[in-house]
Amino acid sequence: MAREPDLIEVPGRTNIYFASDLHLGMQPAGDSLRREKLFVQWLLEIQRDASELWLLGDVFDYWFEYKKVVPRGFTRLLGTLANLSDAGVEIHLIPGNHDIWIFDYLPNEINLIVHRKRIRKSLSGHHFLLGHGDGLYPGDRGYRMLQGIFKNRLMQWIYARIHPNGSMAFAHWWSKKSRMKHGTLGSFMGEENEHQIQFAKKELVKHPDIEYFVFGHRHIAFDIRIAENSRVICLGDWIGNFTYGVFDGNEFRLEQYLPGKGEVIRK
Question: Pick from 11, 47, 113, 218: most CB atoms within 10 A?
């Protein structure tokens, strides 16, 4: 169980930030390290005005915690997140399809608050629905079945019996095979074909107070208004887009962080 963070009230910290799909650990290793350093640079910059940080999945290209073993690497990211948490920034994670197996290590080490499914949440008095954004197409039974296997406690226990060297090698092979088949970066398929948008429209009928549907997963950045007071936002990624969301209590913006320049482009 994640313990609730001891929040430190700091004047001026009112922004809530959102990011997803870093896929750290994805080969080649040099590219992953450069992206990790860039993301850490961004984290250090937002610390001055961030009250919360929401990571909407696939922070890692693969993550599995054994009882006494965690994956190597990512020390810059984890150390910076720990410092943010110690400084009073509330950090949330909704696992994606690549980092499902985050258990108790990160919650205990950095006060990471893990949400295992989509969540409706009031932030600064505004209504959000937050999720990774996968599994929203009702006809994709194969994907849902696979996710059910990955989330099954018994299957996780069986997988944990495999030596980490073998299980991690298999996971990286699987991830590489999937990228070769489907690619890394997507393209906008049109409002009528984007499952996140269609899901949000149906969900809005049941919960008409939701103002912001915020997802990751698609590796594209878009901001689509589906009603007068409701928008669907896909955060993009930190592989080719370097985009993120920021909510200042009144307005949600998609922004881009330019690699290597430390500059921000407002979209």
Answer: 218
